[in-house]
Specification:
Blueprint: H1 3-9, H2 12-26, H3 31-42, E1 47-56, E2 62-70, E3 73-78, H4 107-121, H5 129-140, H6 150-168, H7 172-180, E4 189-196, E5 207-214, H8 220-242, E6 264-270, H9 294-307, E7 310-314, H10 322-330, E8 335-338, H11 346-355, E9 360-363, H12 371-383, E10 387-391, H13 401-408, E11 413-415, H14 422-438
Parallel strand pairs: 4-11, 6-7, 7-8, 8-9, 9-10, 10-11
Antiparallel strand pairs: 1-2, 2-3, 4-5, 5-6
Helix pairs in contact: 2-3, 4-5, 4-6, 5-6, 6-7, 7-13, 11-12, 13-14
Length: 453
């Protein structure tokens, strides 16, 4: 489009005249600034440019970052990444060249943004999130976004969401709430990881995560303080009893430890072996024969829930062990959270709802690929009276988007790791800012974090 065509399309001559007249009527001391602001509001913002680059995530592995430009400015977003094992989730596009970042480079995804996605979205209104996301879905044409790459699509989707909020001149969480259709906003309970085991830890603990929730706090600010203080006290205790080797950056490694405080909750994640469960898979003296059945696991969970204040168990069984998930969930002992079971996949969530296999969703936006689809799965979960846990990923960036997402979608919890390291604290610190914006109107989920039935 030529300059003259753009001027004619937006009737700029008339709009400039209107702005000058408005400045005269207002008797403004700074007519240039007044006219500039008047014109900014008078002309609808559109996407004018999209530029992508390769950056590194918290693991030192490449991911996608996007700068999206509109008349209002530049809006930056980056895509988190998982461990790549979810067969039902959207697919990150990697180059596969072992000579560059061991095959993990994302230059193909970058090229798709700079050439294909950019061409499709330039000129679109950033407030129309669903149309932007649908344009990328139509461009990709695959179920798992494997053509363009879910990492490419998601980074652009988040950047567009930020641009949409700026165009409406509202906070990001408010824009997300508008897209969702929700008006009552709450601050979620933070889920702090304090002890780690499973396949990602160098210890003998079979359970992948032990986490604590400060549900007894009255405000998020107090909850964050409680988490930080407990984290550092625990680090001191472990160091004293087990030496410095018992701790790592962000996680504490122990053979076993359970915390039980009146206003703290606990949950853990099991690493499974199909429909038989090996709790000794990390032991050097394991026989390889001592497997537990699904019934054995249910009995063990019942005993743990009886002995300790456990209120959440995430993925208590294998992702295809629907029957035991269903049986355990029916007991009503605690909230049963689906992560690998669901992969934030709409069809898997629908099946889990029909079979009552769990009653809470782990929401990882990279498993879906767009903001619009994330909103759709949250609506589905909440219609079934499920809880929603907005979650970070193994490969995170300093982008704090999921904090605003959690508030905007009314998630009762947010899982962003231990209260340390920049990519994690970016989310927790953003929630502090949001709570400050709310002022006296701030509502912390606290003891009301459980989904209503």
């Amino acid at each position: 489009m030529s300059v003259q065509e753009y001027l004619d399309k937006h009737m700029l001559s008339r709009r400039i005249e209107d702005a000058v007249n408005a400045a005269v009527r207002a008797k403004t001391p700074d007519p240039v600034l007044f006219i500039s602001n008047h014109m900014r509001k008078a002309i609808p913002s559109v996407i004018t440019r999209i530029k992508a680059r390769q950056i590194l995530d918290s693991r030192g592995i490449p991911t996608v970052e996007v700068d999206l430009y509109t008349n209002k400015g530049m809006f930056r977003a980056s895509a988190p990444s998982g461990d790549g094992t979810g067969m039902y989730e959207a697919v990150d596009l990697r180059d596969g060249d072992k000579g560059s970042y061991l095959g993990n480079s994302v230059t193909k995804a970058i090229k798709n943004i700079n050439e294909k996605i950019s061409e499709a979205l330039i000129g679109m209104d950033p407030t129309l999130q669903s149309q932007i996301d649908q344009a990328m879905i139509d461009l990709d044409k695959t179920e798992k976004k494997s053509e363009l790459g879910a990492n490419a699509v998601l980074a652009v989707s988040i950047a567009a969401c930020k641009a949409g909020a700026a165009e409406k001149e509202v906070p990001l969480y408010k824009h997300i709430a508008d897209l969702y259709g929700k008006s009552n906003l709450t601050i979620p309970v933070p889920v702090f990881s304090v002890i780690n085991g499973g396949k990602h830890a160098g210890n003998s603990l079979a359970f992948q995560d032990i986490m604590i929730l400060p549900t007894g706090a009255s405000r998020f600010e107090e909850a964050l303080q409680m988490g930080s203080e407990t984290y550092h006290h625990l680090k001191a205790v472990i160091t004293e009893r087990y030496g410095a080797s018992g701790c790592n950056v962000g996680e504490f490694f122990l053979a076993w430890m359970l915390l039980a405080y009146n206003n703290w909750a606990l949950f853990f994640i099991l690493v499974d072996k199909g429909t038989k469960y090996d709790l000794e898979f990390k032991s050097p003296s394991r026989s390889g024969q001592n497997f537990k059945s699904g019934e054995d696991m249910i009995q063990m969970y019942k005993e743990l829930c009886s002995d300790y204040p456990i209120v959440l168990i995430e993925d208590p069984f294998d992702k295809e062990d629907w029957e035991h998930n269903k049986c355990f969930c029916a007991l009503g002992l605690c909230q049963v959270v689906g992560d690998d079971l669901l992969n934030s996949n709409l069809k898997r969530i629908e099946k889990a709802i029909q079979e009552s296999a769990c009653n809470s969703l782990i929401l990882k936006i990279n498993q879906i690929g767009t903001v619009t689809e994330a909103i759709e799965v949250v609506k589905l979960a909440k219609d079934a009276h499920w809880g929603v846990v907005a979650s970070h990923q193994w490969g995170e960036t300093e982008d704090s988007f999921i904090a605003d997402l959690a508030v905007g979608l009314g998630a009762s919890q947010i899982k962003a790791g231990a209260p340390c390291r920049g990519e994690r604290l970016a989310k927790y610190n953003q929630l502090l800012r949001i709570e400050e914006e709310f002022g006296d109107q701030a509502i912390y989920a606290g003891e009301d974090w459980r989904p209503s039935s």
